[in-house]
Amino acid sequence: MRNLLVLLIVLVGGFVLVGMFVAPNQPELRTWYLANACQHLDKVSPQICDPIRKAEGTPADKT
């Protein structure tokens, strides 16, 4: 059970790190994160998708 929890934490952390560091430099991945993931990641922290939005040139949502 502990191994499953650690795996889940590592996967979520990897997903966030890819969004912050890899996706801004990859157009297809950046588009996917903007369309699908950023709406959920913004609930955790708006700073996660800021590098993607800066690379795309779209303003951040102020909600």
Any overview of this molecule?
The protein is mainly alpha-helical. The protein has one domain. The chain contains three helices and no strands. The chain has helices at residues 2-22, 27-44, 50-56. It is elongated and about 40 Å long.
Number of folding domains? Answer: 1
Work out the radius of gyration.
13 Å
Strand percent estimate: under 5%
Number of helical segments? 3
Shape: elongated
Q: Could you spell the SSE succession in H and E letters?
A: HHH
Q: What's the count of strands? A: 0
End-to-end separation in angstroms reads 38 Å
Mean pLDDT, nearest integer? 90
Structural class: mainly alpha
Given as residue ranges, the uncertain stretches (5+ residues, pLDDT < 50) are none
What summary fits the major beta sheet?
Answer: none
**Helix fraction by DSSP (H/I, runs of at least 4):** over 70%
Give the topology, please:
Elements: H1 2-22, H2 27-44, H3 50-56
Features:
63 residues; mainly alpha; 3 helices; 73% helix
Give a short summary of the structure.
This protein is mainly α.
